[in-house]
Amino acid sequence: MPTKRKQASVRKPRSDAQRNRERILEVAKEAFTRSGAKTSLDDIARDAGVGPGTLYRHFPAREQLLEAVYRTEMERLASAGQKFAEDLPPIEALRAWLLLFVDYIAAKQLIAPALNMLLGDPKTLLFETSYARIREAIRMLVKRAIKSGDIRKDLDPIDLLRALIGVANVATSPEWQQSARRLVDILIVGSRPAK
After folding, report:
1. What is the pTM of this model?
2. Which segments of 120-149 does DSSP mark as H helices, in order?
């Protein structure tokens, strides 16, 4: 009999339970980004179209939901590089990924401080692997764009990230995201090979 229990504990979640979890995470990301980490969990459940019990079954505590949103966003960003590389020309893949990075920064600005207070430094506790994957993604996209001749050979991929993070860190208004999105195009143009 213990074998059946063990098998039941490792089975995949039902598809409706997985959809509920994904919907909760998406709504929570929007709510936390818009209103901060103190957003009502009951409001998140309502907006996700699930009952509070469903939300708490997936995420028994606020910090678990915050961590899951943050981890999901990092994983989405890290894995987007490969998807964009498969679907788009090199320079467009790089541009699309940098725009997604701007959205990631926006979510991180509100969620990371709350996680830091609740759990300690999220960079060291939870996300070192994801940060490495993000660096790998940008390096792969830049290498691909260099190989295609779309950008200069001396471009350091991390400089692109630093520029976008810099805009977010010196932001004096809520419109910093629009500024960062414009900066993506400036960075792409500035990264082109000299003629």
Report:
1. 0.76
2. 122-125, 128-147
Q: CA dihedral in degrees (193, 103, 137, 66; nearest 10)?
A: 160
Q: In whole angstroms, what is the distance from residue 195 CA to residue 177 CA? A: 31
Helices (H), 49-175: 52-58, 62-87, 90-119, 122-125, 128-147, 157-169
Q: How far apart are CA 186 and CA 59, in angstroms?
A: 41
> pLDDT tens across 79-97, in order?
999 999 999 999 999 999 9
Gyration radius of the chain's alpha carbons:
19
Name the 3-class secondary structure at 97.
Answer: helix
The DSSP letter of residue 127 is: -
The identity of residue 6, as a single letter, is K
Domains and CATH numbers, the chain: 1-60 (1.10.10.60), 62-195 (1.10.357.10)
